[in-house]
Amino acid sequence: MAISDRFGLPIAACISSASPAEVTLVDETLDSGFLDVEPEVLIGDKAYDSDGLDEHLLQTRGITMIAPNRINRKVKTQDGRGLRRYVRRWKVERLFAWLQSFRRLTTRWEWHAENYLGFLRLGCICILLRHL
Hints:
- This protein is α+β, with helices and mostly antiparallel strands.
- A hairpin with a 5-residue loop joins strand 1 (about 1-5) and strand 2 (about 10-15).
- The protein is about 40% helix and about 10% strand.
- It has one domain: Nucleotidyltransferase, domain 5 (2-Layer Sandwich).
- The protein is globular and about 45 Å long.
- A two-stranded antiparallel ribbon has the order 1-2.
């Protein structure tokens, strides 16, 4: 999981197994941030469309969550104004493409999760240093 800013530069990154839902990993990802301040707005895909997550982030952290509604949702919560920012989601995907340029991250050779997390953070540092 990773969070990027509006320029596509990494703000936070963490690793976890593939089995838990992404909604449950948002707090862990925010806690592993590289900066002292947290973002005011998070933009996620349809997997983050959850009323519980929206309320939790707003009450505990003061973060507004923008995610398009799922197709089968009975009560629509997005009116479209916040979704105008969703078109810039390609910048997050670009961050993942930049991280995939590091061979050590593309092919996971590490047996221990701590080593892989270290290389993930090193890749984020390299990306940040390139754009300074």
